[in-house]
Amino acid sequence: MNFEGLDPGLAEYAPAMHSALDPVLDAHLNPSLLQNVELDPEGVALEALPVQESVHIMEGVYSELHSVVAEVGVPVTVSHFDLHEEMLWVGSHGGHATSFFGPTLERYSSFQVNSSDEIRQIQSLENGILFLTKNNLKYMARGGLIIFDYLLDESEDMQSLLLTDSSMLLVGGLQNHILEIDLNTVQETQKYAVETPGVAIMRQTNRFFFCGHTSGKISLRDLRTFKVEHEFDAFSGSLSDFDVHGNLLASCGFSSRLTGLACDRFLKVYDLRMMRAITPLQVHVDPAFLRFIPTYTSRLAIISQSGQCQFCEPTGLANPADIFHVNPVGPLLMTFDVSASKQALAFGDSEGCVHLWTDSPEPSFNPYSRETEFALPCLVDSLPPLDWSQDLLPLSLIPVPLTTDTLLSDWPAANSAPAPRLYLTFGPKVGRAPPVDAEILRTMKKVGFIGYAPNPRTRLRNQIPYRLKESDSEFDSFSKVTESPIGREEEPHLHMVSKKYRKVTIKYSKLGLEDFDFKHYNKTLFAGLEPHIPNAYCNCMIQVLYFLEPVRCLIQNHLCQKEFCLACELGFLFHMLDLSRGDPCQGSNFLRAFRTIPEASALGLILADSDEASGKGNLARLIQRWNRFILTQLHQDMQELEVPQAYRGAASSSFCSSGDSVIGQLFSCEMENCSLCRCGSETVRASSTLLFTLSYPEGSNSDKTGKNCDFAQVLKRSICLEQNTQAWCDNCEKYQPTIQTRNIRHLPDILVINCEVNSLKEADFWRMQADVAFKMAIKKHSGEISKNTELALADWKELGSPEGMLRCPSIEELKNVWLPFSIRMKLTKNKGLDVCNWTDGDEMQWGPARAEEEHGVYVYDLMATVVHILDSRTGGSLVAHIKVGETYHQRKEGVTHQQWYLFNDFLIEPIDKHEAVQFDMNWKVPAILYYTKRNLNSKYNLNIKNPIEASVLMAEASLARKQRKTHTTFIPLMLNEMPQVGDLVGLDAEFVTLNEEEAELRSDGTKSTIKPSQMSVARITCVRGQGPNEGIPFIDDYISTQEQVVDYLTQYSGIKPGDLDAKISSKHLTTLKSTYLKLRFLIDIGVKFVGHGLQKDFRVINLMVPKDQVLDTVYLFHMPRKRMISLRFLAWYFLDLKIQGETHDSIEDARTALQLYQKYLELSKNGTEPESFHKVLKGLYEKGRKMDWKVPEPEGQTSPKNAAVFSSVLAL
């Protein structure tokens, strides 16, 4: 409530006004009100007070039920009905809070909130109560314990608070701003400016924030931006109170008279549908408080300070018969509140009394209140006193609860014995501190209690020898010492995990990714993939598909008109991987399209951020389901052979036939499924599958004898599956036991296998077969196996060559190996299938071309394995071993050879080929296998024809329904303006935030970024860099998004809510794919992009642009080891332009970047005079330091705005 203009007598209250209260009762104070109030012992005893008689309540009519004293003589300043429990809270002028339980107003708790200031507002939350004083916000439990105490600036004069949601709070008062406070972090998140003299009352509906000002105005503000949408000038003097219900706003206040302020008996009522005032409501009391009580109708309760209360309809006439009187003990009513159930009204007066009025004998304060927790009764008073001076006093008189647990005082002797201080040597081992060197003791000199001695130089400086565990010797082929706390305490098995297999994370600084050294993890020219994007668990499988040469080529030749086509997005990602020279890429656009596929969500392939971080999902099962899904989805996308209409440059792929997609030709295996009923009826059905799942022999885990079962036998059993099941028989016309068998008609070019090692049973089978294979290999190579586990330099050079493959393996290379590098498959004439392991020795015996001489015989080579690295804390990670072929090395490194690599997100490292088939089931579990036919690439046309043509730059229709030609901000390129190699194009992009940044505070107060914010491109602008229309944009696309935007960043992006919504936007709205194709065409044609901070723009757009096609003004006007300079400051310094006044505009920024580039060429004489330009930069930095890098406030805006662009567009 706003107290300005109230009774002047209130100013007489002071903190010391009740310091010398007489214990004798006030003459006009009803003694029955003093229940539960302690008086001076010499005063009246509580037992002598008369008990209040029961009050008769008429149903439906408000009347007084109970009255109680909160604090004798101290005015009640605020009252509040608890929204979660049956309690009433009151705050006093002395900063004391008291709560009463139930309609009987039994005292529940009472505690001091502030020592000097009165309590101005109370708000109940689920776990406690918020109290607002003049410059303090305190959150306390209902029992009085402090949860947090937030001190505001001493100059603040806070009046009201408003809870906007469960964790955000607005606090306003008599100053020119409103604070937004996050209750979770107890930090100020934002400060909104308001007009002076500030805000005294705040309300909220689902449409607006309502702010009542002491000047008599009520402002309606936007829920998201807090900007003023409407304003009502209610009273000329001051505002006393207002309330909102439905489409009505009612207010009361004071009007200016000749003699000063006078209480206005006309309530101002406003219709929120038409945003105008309706007929004022004349009442018969002096209104100080008002509340809507919408029980049967939208009744208003109007309360005066003298205790008169009148009910009336806001759009009707007030009836004097509807007035009832509250009998305050003091002269004035100070506060008023209505319960959530509308069954109870609470009044607080200036003498500290609280009056409860209800419309029923047994009211409830809330529709659904939770049970209130009461303190347990104290049992101490009921126990007999014990005299400790009596030695014979039996201790059994002290009641002790009966328990079977060990008492805390019952210490074992081992814990009570003195022990020397222990020190940590390595891992979990501890021992006595090492003795001091005798030479040190001999030469030591004491000064007081401190000894000094020269260093005897018996060991290296700052080093101490580690005592390694004896058991570590069996893992000598792996690096044991972990780089992170993982493995040192929680999971001992991670000691055996090589560092390169562990989960890699990006360490973010305040520069983001700019100073993170990716080259430390990847010294090759192949591109890794970043893992911080949601659902990036599939990074390893994307790499596997990319290094299949036919898949890489056919996917990049595909282009269709679907907005979210996984084949198109995967082709764009493959193009980025082709262009990269070791820099990591991210699959954000591909994963964005992946999240929109309904089948992916139905299969549980889309993980929530919390599940991905905590490792709740089983990654091995997840990646195998993803493998089946992506092959099926690509097969369906590639089957659409019609020429797209939207993208006229796309044509049907040269790979495709009329009957099937190329994915089908590569991966599909044609089969015959035979069902034989016991009646003799046989049904044959043709089908195809894109992958197989391993089916392990029954009882394999119970057979501990070590029976040999090679991989080829298990694979044959899985492909030619035979099982007994119930199936429908047309002959018997019912379900019958049938024998179902599967025969192969045609083998795929790429054999994909899901391992399905999902339980200990399958893991034990792999472990047992690897042990049997190891023993057999030892016998076979007895006397020939090299004991040395290290590879010589010559051996590394020979990796991948026939000579290098024939060297004798070491013992470490034979451990945990069951998987063959090659398998031989033959289709027999009777539709049977023969499968056997194929080794190097077999190839020497039969010859390399032997398999192709006989029809139906094929040799498959292992191309990739995807494995699950176990970690019970995080769910582990997925990595891939991939044999990279000759064509990839030829493109990237200019050499022709094959090599196995480990792909662990952005970590890429060459490995020995034996490491790809070694599976220690304690930490490395196989998930997916890829085998390819010999000479696979020779069967397909591997030429990539760019399907994107110049027609993508032509004019296109907007997705927005309300866009008009007068709103056009760009002119599409004409045929004679098509860009050529080396043409300049000004580029700028704006972004919105999809997910907020996740960060934590370290113990030293610095912030550590755990996960960066996820951005999405919202607007892309391209401006002509030459020609008669130089500076005129030819692309200005707003990108429609289906994902939830958490922050539009309007101050920095200029994007407002609704701009990206096709239903209400007036902008030129397109899909991300459409604009992406335009930029891809410009990149492929060879234009040079000019902009400011283009590295981040291209990163969020998900584009890889060659460095020689980027002219970034951030780096052109930058001195080494100095700060980066903003575009706004550069434009002011060099061009005398003042841009980015209120918000950013991408057209303005792109055109300014072009002008800065022209200025750079002018100052550096086209780069021929670097020394003179260096002097210019020194002057720039000196001026920036003097100006604190801030542009002076403009007297008049001189920067080129969109109005110039609009006029140019209309003229053309």
Automatic annotation (TrEMBL):
Entry cofactors: a divalent metal cation
**Compartment list:** Cytoplasm, P-body; Nucleus
* Cellular component, GO, one term: PAN complex
The record ties this protein, via InterPro entries, to:
PAN2, PAN2-PAN3_catalytic_subunit, PAN2_N, PAN2_UCH_dom, Papain-like_cys_pep_sf, Ribonucl_H, RNaseH-like_sf, RNaseH_sf
EC class, as a word, reads hydrolase
Q: Which residues bind a divalent metal cation?
A: 988, 990, 1097, 1149
Cofactor mode of binding and number, as noted: Binds 2 metal cations per subunit in the catalytic exonuclease domain.
Catalysis: reaction(s): Exonucleolytic cleavage of poly(A) to 5'-AMP
Q: Provide the E.C. number(s) assigned to this enzyme.
A: 3.1.13.4
What keywords sit in the KW lines?
A: Cytoplasm, Exonuclease, Hydrolase, Metal-binding, mRNA processing, Nuclease, Nucleus, Repeat, WD repeat
Name all USP domain ranges. Answer: 527-934
Per the entry, what modulates this protein's activity?
Answer: Positively regulated by the regulatory subunit PAN3.
List the GO biological process terms: mRNA processing; nuclear-transcribed mRNA poly(A) tail shortening; positive regulation of cytoplasmic mRNA processing body assembly
Q: Which domain of life is it from?
A: Eukaryota
- MF terms per GO, please? metal ion binding; nucleic acid binding; poly(A)-specific ribonuclease activity
Q: Which family does it belong to?
A: Belongs to the peptidase C19 family. PAN2 subfamily.
Q: How does it assemble?
A: Forms a heterotrimer with an asymmetric homodimer of the regulatory subunit PAN3 to form the poly(A)-nuclease (PAN) deadenylation complex. Interacts with ZFP36. Forms a heterotrimer with an asymmetric homodimer of the regulatory subunit PAN3 to form the poly(A)-nuclease (PAN) deadenylation complex. Interacts with PAN3 isoform 1/Pan3L and isoform 3/Pan3S. Interacts with ZFP36.
What role does it play? Catalytic subunit of the poly(A)-nuclease (PAN) deadenylation complex, one of two cytoplasmic mRNA deadenylases involved in general and miRNA-mediated mRNA turnover. PAN specifically shortens poly(A) tails of RNA and the activity is stimulated by poly(A)-binding protein (PABP). PAN deadenylation is followed by rapid degradation of the shortened mRNA tails by the CCR4-NOT complex.
Q: Specify the protein name.
A: PAN2-PAN3 deadenylation complex catalytic subunit PAN2
List the source organism.
Myotis brandtii
Its gene is PAN2
